[in-house]
Write a structure and sequence with these properties.
The chain is α/β, with parallel strands linked by helices and about 350 residues long. The chain folds into two domains: about 240 residues, Aldolase class I (TIM Barrel), CATH 3.20.20; about 70 residues, Non-ribosomal Peptide Synthetase Peptidyl Carrier Protein, Chain A. The chain is built from 15 helices and eight strands. It has an eight-stranded parallel beta barrel, surrounded by seven helices. Helix 6 packs parallel to helix 7, helix 7 runs parallel beside helix 8 and helix 11 crosses helix 12. It is globular and about 60 Å long. The two termini are about 35 Å apart.
């Protein structure tokens, strides 16, 4: 591995947080890291947005601090020159551990532009993108890792991940991650881990596996069945950052620390809302946190009514008071997990044009 890595040089297989739009911002990545994630990814960042100097696009990169966070910046697009220019713009201000090219997003808006999973139907274009971005990275020391995130294929009749992966490696990718579902599956059905194994056998670079990893045994089974170098956890981590600690502990010691106490879940939900409000602004942060709050309280007594109430609030203080009153009624003692929030960096900090200071 050249330059910075994502924990792949460790003796223990790395466990990371997969990129998720609307989720993988600075506060989420920070929590994932504190709970044991070896690496994280940013949300998808539009190459065209960077080239056009769109402030909303640069907002997705806020919070990354040079050499302080093992994060991969994920970019998407369908035009090779724009993707290379976006890589130059990113590296002019920050040095991520890796630059990741999204070739797996199934969302219609992304696919219609020829980006995301659509690139798996255009391997020549995808190869050109990787080659051009690789050339950009070559001029930087240390050289960030270049990775490509893909799916099994477009649909059941086009599961071309092994051949596609080989072409991406030849073009310059030093790491591949495979979400073992086709684009037509979106996020439904069962992930086909056999496709990950086929990719691992086909290429010489590390492969990260993704899809249906929700527990320590899931991670162990994926690693043993596919031979992948590490695993990524996506939707199972929403409102559940403890998952990284549980998987890490299971892989290292064969033990599962178990579910957090209800009071711990409520306490962290409150803290997460406060972090998002500080990072994104009060109303926007609280509104965007609703999806994650729903996951934090899932399975608790009266969760449906609690979710309805959470959907009405637009301030972190309102959420805090609601959760405190709910905990009091249920007899749950709100207590924090065992890590020091003093380690939290000021989310307003960034590097040059990514800073809001």
């Amino acid at each position: 591995m050249e330059g910075i890595n994502l924990g792949l040089s460790s003796s223990s297989p790395p466990v990371g947080a997969a990129p998720m739009a609307g989720i993988s911002d600075f506060p989420f990545r920070l929590l994932a890291r504190n709970f044991g994630a070896d690496f994280t990814f940013t949300e998808m960042v539009s190459a065209q947005g960077l080239v056009r100097d769109n402030p909303n696009t640069f907002e997705l990169l806020r919070g990354i601090r040079q050499n302080r966070e093992p994060v991969a910046v994920q970019i998407f697009g369908s035009e090779p020159r724009a993707m290379a220019a976006a890589a130059e713009i990113i590296l002019s201000s920050i040095l991520p551990a890796a630059l990741d090219i999204n070739m797996g997003c199934p969302v219609p808006k992304v696919v219609k532009s020829g980006a995301g999973a659509a690139l798996m139907c255009a391997p020549e274009v995808a190869e050109n993108i990787v080659s051009r971005v690789s050339d950009v990275l070559e001029s930087h020391d240390p050289r960030p890792l270049l990775s490509v995130k893909m799916r099994s294929g477009w649909n059941d009749s086009s599961t071309n991940a092994p051949d596609f992966a080989a072409r991406m490696e030849e073009a310059g990718a030093g790491l591949l991650s495979v979400h073992a579902r086709t684009r037509s599956m979106f996020y439904s059905g069962q992930a086909d881990w056999e496709l990950i194994e086929k990719v691992v056998r086909r290429v010489g670079v590390p492969v990260l596996g993704s899809g249906d990893v929700c527990t320590g045994p899931d991670a162990r089974d994926m690693l043993s069945q596919t031979g992948c170098a590490g695993v990524m956890v996506g939707r199972a981590a929403i409102g559940n950052p403890w998952i990284f600690c549980r998987i890490r502990t299971y892989l290292d010691r064969g033990e599962d620390p178990g579910d957090p106490l209800p009071g711990e879940r409520l306490w962290l939900a409150k803290e997460h809302v406060k972090m998002e409000a500080a990072f994104r602004g009060e109303r926007r942060g609280v509104v965007l946190m609703r999806r994650q709050l729903h996951k934090y309280v899932r399975g608790l007594p009266g969760a449906s009514e609690l979710r309805d109430q959470l959907n009405r609030f637009e301030s972190a203080r309102e959420v805090e008071l609601l959760l405190a009153e709910y905990a009091r009624r249920q007899g749950f003692h709100q207590e924090g997990p065992n890590f020091d929030f003093a380690r939290v960096h000021d989310p307003r900090q960034g590097c040059r044009r990514f800073s809001t200071n």
